[in-house]
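Components:
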Amino acid sequence: AQKVTQAQTEISVVEKEDVTLDCVYETRDTTYYLFWYKQPPSGELVFLIRRNSFDEQNEISGRYSWNFQKSTSSFNFTITASQVVDSAVYFCALSERNTGFQKLVFGTGTRLLVSP
Amino acid sequence: GAVVSQHPSRVICKSGTSVKIECRSLDFQATTMFWYRQFPKKSLMLMATSNEGSKATYEQGVEKDKFLINHASLTLSTLTVTSAHPEDSSFYICSAKEDTKETQYFGPGTRLLVL
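Structure:
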């Protein structure tokens, strides 16, 4: 069965620190997508990135970077030089081909608090 | 691009009344829309999946007569909470997906408080 685990419930850092949010997934499907979403205090889920199972290249977008490793079933997210505006809950999610990529399975989220 | 709106953003109602929440995809055609519920400090729980022009598919444990979903057009889905009770108070979020695309885009959510 598919499952997404975000073991870090809450992380507190001081501005300008780097922080890595962990995500470990389980799936029996060979074709799947992994996602990260940000949920600021306002509540809206903001799409950050999508990665398919055949593309293990790491990605960097500004201060954000993602490390996808199939060998460890992990899709970790690093924020470099964190800012107060990064404070939010971050969700990792998985969708599989056997559901037609229709069903998103979410992790429990990691609450990031960045202090000035 | 890929903007999803939800209305209302916040609603307070009396127990026993029905509440309708609208979800619209503003700049794309959403063949599939999803309704989630989120309790405080918890993850999102999928309630149902709706495809345009057909009946919604409800997740196990979600009462379809309680949570009526209509997806009448490619840009609009509605969730009606019928005969709402205090335990229905929650944050409801919709998402929308284009056909052949893999990413769901989420609306801003609706906070429902039933007194």
